[in-house]
Amino acid sequence: MLPVSVKEELLRKIESHHANVVVIGLGYVGLPLAVEKGNVGFNVIGIEKNEERVKLINAGMNYIPDVNGEELRKLTLEGRLSATCSFDCLKKADVIIMCVPTPLTENRDPDISQIVLVTEQIAKHLRSGQLVTLESTTYPGTTQEVILPHLLKNGLKVGEDFFLAYSPERVDPGNKRFKTKNIAKIVGGVTPACLEVGCNFYGQTIQQVVGVSSPAASEMIKVFENTYRAVNIALVNELMFICDKMGLDVWEIVKAAGTKPFGIQTFYPGPGVGGHCIPVDPYYLTWKVKEYDFYSNLIELAVQINIKASYFVANKISKALNQQKKSLYESRVLILGAAYKRDVDDARESPAVKIMSILAGEGAKVVYHDPYIPEVELSRKLILKSIDLTAEEIARADCVVIATDHSCFDYELIVNNADILVDARNAIGDTMKGRREIIKI
Ligand code: SAJ
């Protein structure tokens, strides 16, 4: 009887769901993935640097809105999901998944320091029979050029002793329809065996797995997806600037253009793009291509236009006050919504916060209300706390701005009590037209 190969042995553990899975990073990507894997029987340990989060998980408590709290509690009670700050559990892991943040540095360059730090820990514990995958969004080449060399230092052979793949996360925070298990999963392996093992593992819980030719292809697919969104949002934001000049309603234009049943996808203008992906990922691509003596004019321009949208809205606010013979300086401006998009509790790169900073920089007295975001830091010296949304506070403001159109806002109360109302999200639309001069961007 031929000895079972390392790959066959690992596939057997994966297919029987007896493999030990370690997820590094229990954020909006890692925790849903950990719960999905635990739900089908894998034993999952999460490595998380935030000690508070570790305590919450081990107490069976959820902190990610997209995760089913009851499922998480059940898994921790059954001992199939636990969390730790230590990397020691890596030696027993059969599958290791990296889901760590990939932000930008101060001067907008890719920051993959967390990927490197975690890779070094994996390299310390690497043994024969392990699958390592990276899910964090990064520039094409990261897996092959950064991760692989660290892991090869052990003398183990990739594709024979251990397996390495890149499989981008595609979580859409707050999306009720598409969850981890029903979003197609792209997988790119360093070798054919890596691809086979990677596809097999993800296929245990995800309905559709799409194998591609390399990790770089898989990395490029992800940055392309988000750059596609950034460029198309920039297009409608520039359309917003044009319609403003021509006295046309950009919302009417994009909505009616969307009635064409083919050849167009509807994007909406707004105060800019926020979150940890759309304003960030295009920089990963434009930074990497410089290595090939290429400069991406379209993508760089799109990023600039999306930034300009925040200044466009701030200017609208200033003009609205001006029309009432009020200066922006010392005017009280109430910003509704600080999160980067509707119904999420995340303010990273939020355009609403950017607008607050611009207005505060011009001397306005800025206050905000957001039930999801208790406080925002505009600068080291200026930290704002969310105020209650009352008729008095709305009436007290010289200008009220809908910067993030949360579903929970009482728009009737807002329209009936705001003196000047600037709607940066078309939240009011035509529902309460005529009640009051609503300045749509
Ligand atoms: N935005 C617009 N106009 C639009 C769409 C979005 O101004 O037509 C703004 C939003 O208000 C927000 C920003 O752009 O400030 C980003 O919105 P988003 O929903 O595209 O971004 P994320 O980061 O919440 O989620 C995206 C995913 N979204 C969708 O596909 C709908 C997806 O691109 C990725 O799976 C995810 O980023 C990620 O993690 O990469």
Sequence-ordered SSE layout with sheet pairings:
Blueprint lengths: L5 H10 L4 E5 L5 H10 L3 E5 L3 H8 L10 H9 L3 E4 L10 E4 L14 H13 L4 E5 L7 H11 L9 E5 L18 E5 L2 H12 L5 E4 L2 H32 L3 H8 L23 H9 L7 H27 L8 E5 L14 H11 L3 E5 L5 E3 L5 E3 L5 H6 L2 E4 L8 H7 L3 E3 L14 E3 L1
Parallel strand pairs: 1-2, 1-4, 2-3, 4-5, 5-6, 7-8, 9-10, 9-13, 13-14, 14-15
Antiparallel strand pairs: 6-7, 11-12
The structure holds ligand SAJ.
The site of ligand SAJ has 21 residues, from helix 8.
Order of helices and strands: HEHEHHEEHEHEEHEHHHHEHEEEHEHEE
The unique ligands bound to this protein are: ligand SAJ
Output the CATH homologous superfamily of the largest domain. Answer: NAD(P)-binding Rossmann-like Domain
The CATH topology of the largest domain corresponds to Rossmann fold
Structure report:
There is one protein chain. This protein is an alpha/beta fold and 441 residues long. The chain has two domains: 6-213, NAD(P)-binding Rossmann-like Domain (Rossmann fold); 260-440, Rossmann fold (3-Layer(aba) Sandwich). 39% of the residues lie in helices and 14% in strands. The protein contains 14 helices and 15 strands. Strands 3-2-1-4-5-6-7-8 form an eight-stranded mixed β-sheet, with helices on both faces. A five-stranded parallel β-sheet has the order 10-9-13-14-15. Strands 11-12 form a two-stranded antiparallel ribbon. The protein is elongated, with a radius of gyration of 24 Å. The N and C termini lie far apart (73 Å). The mean pLDDT is 95. Bound molecules: ligand SAJ. Ligand SAJ is lined by residues 137, 169-173, 225-226, 229, 233, 267-268, 270, 273-275, 277-278, 340-341, 351.
